Amino acid sequence: MKKQQRQADIVKTLRSSRVPVSGTALSEIFQVSRQSIVQDIALLKADHFNIISTNKGYIIVDPPPREKIFKVSHNHEEIGDELYTIVDAGGFVRDVYVLHDIYGKIQVDLFLATRADVDSFVAGLKEKKTSPLMKLTDTVHYHTVEAVSDSILSAVEKSLTEKGYLISVG
């Protein structure tokens, strides 16, 4: 496969995925080295493709998604349910952050699009016995949620409100 065709196929692969695609997965799909994928991604970025590198892989933002920031609060046991509520409505949880009185904004990328993503995140919290960020601010935290339409963001807002998690929308 020629380099230009591979790059076009990489763009198609990224566009068809709602979750990040790892460099390793791309190298297996296209049967090239991981370094070749890194070079292809760099060239695609230079050609003005909006490809973002995350700790879980590459995503392409094309066209730019709609987003809202949801200020929420709930107890520790409801983390999974809150995140399920967002992804079940079609939202993509890009991050979580808190506004700490001393440290300011503390933000972590999540990139959760499916229940399996949520399960993996919640399992990671349990396995590593890690405290969620919301513990720093008496359970109040924020999520940046992306969606392909305003109606999906409205559905997320409605569902979070119905469950009593939503404080406000920014």
Overview of this protein structure:
The longest helix is centred in the N-terminal third of the chain and has 13 residues, at 3-15. The chain folds into 2 domains: 3-60, Winged helix-like DNA-binding domain superfamily/Winged helix DNA-binding domain (Arc Repressor Mutant, subunit A), CATH 1.10.10; 66-163, Histidine-containing Protein, Chain: A, CATH 3.30.1340. Helices cover 41% and strands 27% of the residues. With 170 residues, the chain is an alpha+beta fold. The chain contains 6 helices and 7 strands; from the N terminus they run H-H-H-E-E-E-H-E-E-H-E-H-E.
Name the descriptors.
170 residues; alpha+beta; Arc Repressor Mutant, subunit A; Histidine-containing Protein, Chain: A; 2 domains; 5-stranded antiparallel beta sheet; 6 helices
